[in-house]
Write a structure and sequence with these properties.
The protein is of the alpha/beta class and about 450 residues long. The protein has a domain of about 280 residues: Rossmann fold (3-Layer(aba) Sandwich). The strands form 4 sheets. A 7-stranded mixed sheet has the order 1-4-5-15-10-11-14, sandwiched between helices. The chain has a 4-stranded parallel sheet with strand order 8-7-6-9, sandwiched between helices. Strand 6, helix 6 and strand 7 form a beta-alpha-beta unit. The relative contact order is 0.15. It binds pyridoxal-5'-phosphate. Pyridoxal-5'-phosphate (PLP) binds next to helix 12 and helix 16.
Length: about 450
């Protein structure tokens, strides 16, 4: 195909946007394992979960059967402010690489929060408002999720309380201030405001905090304050459901120009962007209608898929969140302070874990310095400054395109460009100064964290 036969930006019209989320679980033969109560080790009941999350979201969390769930009109209204997000044909990158492969990427960075996370934040805030709640609590690491939820809460007039990992709170003042612009209250975690925070501070005075610890604090505040619930930005089934809008739009746009992807690539932290991007494609694969090669990309510093185990584990340090059966490195694993904050989670979505376990997708782990080199190569060709998380997908898309150069294959590669890197220039500075390290845990280290997995009889 010649240059320009397909437009560089493949847009959908507003009236072509999806009106329902797609629930990939409906087409999975092996459903993800149920969430367990960390106290009783028994499956969480709907009622128990409703103490933590808002009602409608609990329903979505537990719904393994309904394939399409309507997107509330109020949520569609806000989506239209920044969606459909563009699907780009990376002509310029292809040219610079000299590859016969066709590269497409779905760009989710065109909103103030700068990432795909707003897609789920809006849905979660909407259902909280509908239930008559006063507000929601959450944690944020690098700040993308906290920003997204702050935006969503301000739109729906909800109170938003964010526990931000202390090191990020100090190192990323701009993200912190953006959240405040949208009216959120931001507390560095661990804090003295919660029992779990006090306990952690007593045991580890001076700690910079971790995502697992911030989650525990946010959950504690939600369950002990009337009219509040907890919101999580990744991992959960409901979040993948909301993020399916990314894949549905991408597929609709590709269908519109008559292109079938051969390979789909995405970065994987908790699995929400990748899960959302691949959902409709995976549905076809599960139903035997089409085949796609699907690749999850993770950092070598936090290799949940490639070096973790498939087991029930805690999602948080305080061990008060539901147990998820997932690929995990152990809830005590604290990844090296790499710059892709959104990928530093010890576990993985239960849906993606089951699909990976059943052989429907592959995973690769990449080195941080290679990722930043790929990010620069990409921005010099395509103009967009990518987030470090997103650049993991870029790295593997480039590798795959270069393989096609050897074989002469005209593979159609689609990858998810989840966000922008404007708030990550500190990391780029480290890279430019040659101060960036590749942190790769040893087998012994990983083994030591595995010992602390809960003992669950299935
Ligand atoms: C949070 C984040 C990710 C990783 O989270 P997933 O749930 O795995 O998608 C990736 N990219 C960006 C820009 C993020 O903010």
């Amino acid at each position: 195909m010649k240059y320009n036969e397909i437009p560089t930006k493949i847009y959908l019209e507003e009236n072509e946007m999806p009106k329902a989320y797609y629930n990939v679980r409906a087409d999975m033969k092996n459903k993800p394992a149920p969430l367990l109560n960390p106290g009783t080790k028994k499956p969480f009941t709907e009622e128990e979960l409703c103490g933590v999350f808002c009602k409608e979201l609990v329903k979505q969390e537990l719904d393994d059967d309904t394939p399409y769930i309507p997107i509330p009109e109020e949520v569609q209204r806000y989506y239209k402010m920044y969606r459909p997000s563009p699907l780009f044909r990376a002509y310029n990158l292809e040219k610079k690489l000299g590859t016969p492969a066709h590269i497409y990427y779905k760009f989710e960075g065109n909103n103030t929060s700068g990432s795909h996370k707003l897609n789920s934040a809006l849905a979660q805030a909407y259902y909280a408002k509908q239930q008559g709640l006063k507000g929601v609590t959450t944690e944020t690491g690098a700040g993308q999720w906290g920003t997204a939820l702050s935006m969503a809460c301000s739109y729906f007039d909800l109170d938003c309380k964010v526990f931000m990992v202390k090191t990020s709170y100090e190192q990323k003042p701009y993200r912190r201030e953006v959240m405040k612009v949208y009216g959120a209250s931001v507390t560095p975690s661990p804090s003295m405001e919660t029992q779990v925070g006090q306990k952690i501070l007593q045991e580890h005075p001076g700690t910079g905090g971790s995502l697992g610890c911030a989650i525990s604090e946010a959950v504690e505040v939600a369950v002990t304050n009337e009219g509040y619930r907890y919101a999580l930005g990744s991992v959960l089934n409901q979040v993948l459901l909301h993020q399916s809008i990314v894949g549905l739009e991408a597929k609709a746009a590709l269908d519109k120009i008559g292109v079938k992807a051969d390979m789909i690539i995405g970065c994987a932290g908790g699995g929400s962007n990748l899960g959302g991007l691949i959902s409709p494609f995976m549905g076809e694969k599960l139903r035997g209608e089409a085949d796609y090669e699907i690749i999850a990309v993770e950092p070598q510093s936090c290799p949940s898929f490639t070096r973790g185990v498939f087991a029930y584990d805690y999602a948080d340090t305080g061990r008060i969140c539901p147990l998820v059966k997932m690929y995990t490195l152990g809830s005590d694993f604290i990844p090296a302070p790499d710059h892709a904050g959104g990928l530093r989670f010890h576990g993985m979505s239960g849906i993606l874990s089951q699909l990976y376990h059943d052989g429907y997708m592959k995973a690769v782990a990449v080195k941080q310095t290679d990722v930043f080199a790929a990010a620069e190569q990409f921005s010099r060709a395509e103009g967009i400054l990518p987030a470090p998380e997103s650049s993991h997908a870029i790295k593997v898309a480039i590798d795959e395109a270069l393989k096609c150069k050897e074989t002469g294959e005209e593979k159609k590669i689609l990858f998810g460009l989840t966000g922008t890197g404007y708030f990550d220039l500190y990391a780029f500075e480290k890279f430019h100064n040659g101060e960036m390290q590749d942190n790769i845990p040893t087998d012994e280290e990983l083994e030591s964290f595995r010992k602390n997995l809960p003992d669950i009889k299935e």
